[in-house]
From TrEMBL:
Sequence ranges assigned to domain Beta-ketoacyl-[acyl-carrier-protein] synthase III C-terminal in this UniProt record: 219-308
Protein name, entry field: Beta-ketoacyl-ACP synthase III
Pathway(s) served: Lipid metabolism
Keyword ATP-binding: no
Domain of life: Bacteria
Xref: InterPro entries: ACP_syn_III_C (IPR013747), ACP_syn_III_N (IPR013751), FabH (IPR004655), Thiolase-like (IPR016039)
Length: 327
């Protein structure tokens, strides 16, 4: 028995902000593109519901996977900018989608949150507690952005992405590693003033080391070399960081997915958004081996190897997923 990604979906707010919308902060399109690769980002309206946007992404992931809402046993949402403090958005999203009384909760682990949620989903399936888990990353970072600070305002975007994680009968077993270092909270945090502060240059260097080193570790544990990766999908914070990681790993540029130019840094939503966009661009084929890596506030980090849509995935209506009494 193993675990695979069965489908992905994305949802972005309609409002697009280009780099030119930030020139009043004494910045320029040239600086932002050269230092980060970002060209535009999306902005959720101040009175809009993030849960509604996340529901759209989750609905698209379900449609892409062919898994029906009734077959989802757990819903996990990674976010640091939920609509309300409690309950988490997962319960609202599950209800909006007609998922019947699943285990549903939110995870907060900065930009690594999606990989933490995905690791939980994999463990739940491997332990037999679930067959299909819906994992979403959703952020309205505009809610915690200091819109007068050029050091951070140009980097952040809003959006939501989701994947359906499913049991499969054979194929590659996922290999994941997560970690954190609380001695480095000061590098990136959101304090009581509710605004994100970070020391970008110091994070840059740690990010390359953490993502490259932990991707090497999960590859080694899976018995794979970097050449086995069909697509490397890293947290989309900065194109320069991602290229530095891929050079360290020896992954060719054409096997690295980038959408930071279109969506900027969307924290927990970044990797599922990238997966959904890669799918839309026909860059994922059944059985593709994906390398995933993230880092963020904590510092926290994660890396993993998992297949896209394993041909051995258990179908939602198949006997393997029926009557397991796991709810
Ligand atoms: O999601 C995880 C969390 N965060 C990150 O991943 C961020 C990681 N870090 C980065 O992406 C990069 O470090 C940044 C994009 C934040 C900055 O790029 P950099 O090449 O590391 O620049 P720097 O911090 O060394 O700053 C260079 C200069 C500074 O001016 P001085 O001190 O050299 O005069 C900054 O004040 O660039 C200045 N600067 C800007 N200039 C124009 C910083 N932001 C801007 C800006 N426009 N938006």
């Amino acid at each position: 028995m193993t675990v695979t990604l069965a489908g992905a979906g994305a949802a972005l707010p309609e409002r697009v902000l280009s780099n030119h919308d930030f020139v009043h902060l004494d910045t320029s399109d040239e600086w932002i593109v050269q230092r980060t690769g970002i060209r535009e980002r999306r902005r959720l309206a101040a009175d809009a519901s993030l849960a509604e946007l996340a529901t759209d992404a989750c609905g698209r992931a379900l449609a892409d996977s062919g898994v029906a809402p009734r077959d989802i046993h757990q819903v996990v949402v990674a976010t640091s900018t939920a609509d309300r403090i409690s309950p988490g958005m997962a319960v609202e999203i599950a209800t909006r989608l007609g998922i019947d009384r699943p285990a549903a909760f939110d995870v907060s682990a900065g930009c690594s949150g999606f990989l933490y949620a995905l690791d939980h989903a994999i463990a739940a399936i491997e332990s037999g507690r679930a067959d299909h888990v819906l994992v979403c990353g959703a952020e309205a970072l505009s809610r915690i952005t200091d819109h007068t600070d050029r050091n951070t305002a140009v980097l952040l975007g809003d959006g939501a992405g989701a994947v359906v994680v499913s049991r499969a009968e054979g194929g590659l077993r996922p290999s994941f590693v997560l970690g954190s270092d609380g001695t480095r909270i000061d590098l990136l945090h959101v304090q009581q003033d509710k605004l994100l502060r970070m020391r970008g240059r110091e994070i840059f260097e740690s990010a390359v080391d953490l993502m490259a080193g932990h991707t090497e570790l999960v590859l080694e544990r899976a018995g794979l070399g970097a050449e086995a990766l069909d697509l490397f999908v890293a947290h989309q914070a900065n194109a320069r960081i991602i290229h530095a990681v891929r050079r360290r790993l020896g992954v060719p540029a054409e096997r690295v997915f980038l959408n930071v130019d279109k969506v900027a840094n969307t924290s927990s939503a970044s990797i599922p958004l990238a997966l959904a966009h890669a799918g839309e661009q026909q860059l994922l084929h059944p059985g593709a081996v994906l390398g995933l890596a993230a880092f963020g506030a904590g510092l926290s980090w994660g890396a993993g190897v998992i297949t896209w849509r394993s041909p051995d995935a258990v179908r939602p209506d198949g006997e393997l997923s029926a009557g397991r009494g796991v709810r």
